[in-house]
Design a protein that fits this description.
The complex is a heterodimer. By secondary structure, chain A is an all-alpha fold. Chain A has a domain of 43 residues. Helix content of chain A is 76%, strand content 0%. Chain A is built from 2 helices and no strands. Chain A is rod-shaped, with a radius of gyration of 32 Å. The relative contact order of chain A is 0.04. By secondary structure, chain B is of the alpha+beta class. Chain B has 2 domains: 46 residues, no CATH class; 183 residues, C8orf32 fold (Roll). Helices cover 45% and strands 17% of the residues of chain B. In chain B, the strands form 2 sheets. Chain B has a 7-stranded antiparallel beta sheet with strand order 1-9-8-4-5-6-7, with helices on one face. Chain B has a two-stranded antiparallel ribbon with strand order 2-3. In chain B, a hairpin with a 4-residue loop joins β4 and β5. The chains are: A mainly alpha, B alpha+beta. Chains A and B meet through α1 and α2 of A and α5, α6, α9 and β5 of B.
Chain lengths: 78, 247
């Protein structure tokens, strides 16, 4: 009899635990969906400021960018 | 003991953000400090922590996989399709057309630079592109019920090189270009934040550093290395996921 009661108790507790787990999963999914819709509605509006380089000059980088620029200017002339 | 709020304040201002603030206050709470004092300290220090630098290792911020934001998932797919053209151009110069010629030089010569110089090169190269505000108009979508909603438009690298874009496009173009140069996705995130100085939402690319701090690649050519960003970070994304920094 004791064993029977213990088995019924374990079964009930197990079902309860599984249900709680399902509910928390659903809750979590709903929370993520809600947050995703908020994130999706945020529109980035900041404008680009005029570029005045304050970083240190670098000859290697200047040379590469110069090469790219002259190539692009050449392409545009064509 | 009297100096603990001051110590936590120094931690917030000099190291970084909410994460350190919470740790500092937790450590303090373990001592016998009245709760009223802790609350006061939180009220004073939390706004300060909100403008601290970006962190990659803040716990419990992962929200969802990248495809959960359809516009971003779509951009990742389109970029994956366009990579074939980039690969062809890198293998055979004759297959390079238009902007791909410049991109080829950046990738070839950038590969020989130090990591710091690579960041500088990519930042300056992308920032030279045309600024276009009207990209969002193209992404106007009619939501259920007929209500029009404005959405962010995320450009692919080639899309951006040919047509330009606005600040989130600059950030994503830098992300894709640095990926081509060998940077790991896990070390980069496009971070959408609220810029308190202009009261607008802004997007920048964050690069993880060895000490878990981060550098922010700005659209005015600066690389923000300081612990104080002046931004309130809202969310971040890369090809591996989306991170929520507000909840």
């Amino acid at each position: 009899m004791k064993r029977m009661i213990f088995a019924v108790f374990c079964l009930t507790a197990g079902i309860g635990w599984a249900q709680d787990n399902d509910e928390s999963k659903v809750e979590k999914t709903e929370k993520v969906d809600l947050r995703m819709s908020v994130i999706e509605s945020i529109v980035v509006t900041a404008q680009k400021a005029p570029v005045v380089s304050t970083d240190e000059p670098d000859e290697d980088i200047d040379a590469i960018l110069g090469e790219v620029e002259s190539l692009e200017n050449e392409d545009e002339r064509k | 003991m009297a100096s603990w709020p001051f110590s936590c304040g120094i931690v917030v201002l000099s190291i970084d953000g909410k994460f350190q603030l919470i740790q500092c206050l937790q450590a303090t709470a373990e001592r016998d400090v009245p709760k009223s004092k802790l609350t006061t300290a939180l009220l004073i220090l939390l706004p300060l922590s909100a403008v601290a630098g970006y962190r990659f290792d803040t716990p419990e911020t992962y929200l969802a996989e990248a495809s959960a934001l359809p516009a971003w998932g779509d951009t990742l797919e389109r970029h994956a399709d366009e990579r074939a053209a980039i690969d062809d151009c890198m293998l055979t110069e004759e297959k390079c057309e238009g902007r791909l010629n410049g991109l080829r030089i950046i990738l070839q010569k950038g590969a020989n630079l130090e990591p710091d110089q690579q960041l500088k090169l990519v930042n300056r190269y992308i920032n030279k592109r045309r600024y276009r505000r009207d990209r969002k108009q193209m992404s106007l979508s009619v939501a259920e019920g007929g209500q029009a909603k404005l959405r962010n438009h995320w450009s692919t690298l080639l899309d951006f090189l040919y047509r330009g874009g606005d600040c989130e496009d600059y950030a994503t173009a830098k992300y894709f270009l640095l990926r081509e140069l060998g940077y790991q996705a896990d070390d980069m995130r496009v971070v959408v934040s609220y810029d308190r100085s202009v009261r607008q939402h802004h997007a920048v690319l964050a690069i993880r550093q060895a000490d878990d701090s981060s550098w922010l690649l700005e659209i005015d050519n600066t690389i923000r290395k300081s612990r104080q960003s002046g931004y309130r970070f809202i969310y971040a994304l890369n090809e591996n996921g989306i991170w929520d920094h507000e909840n």
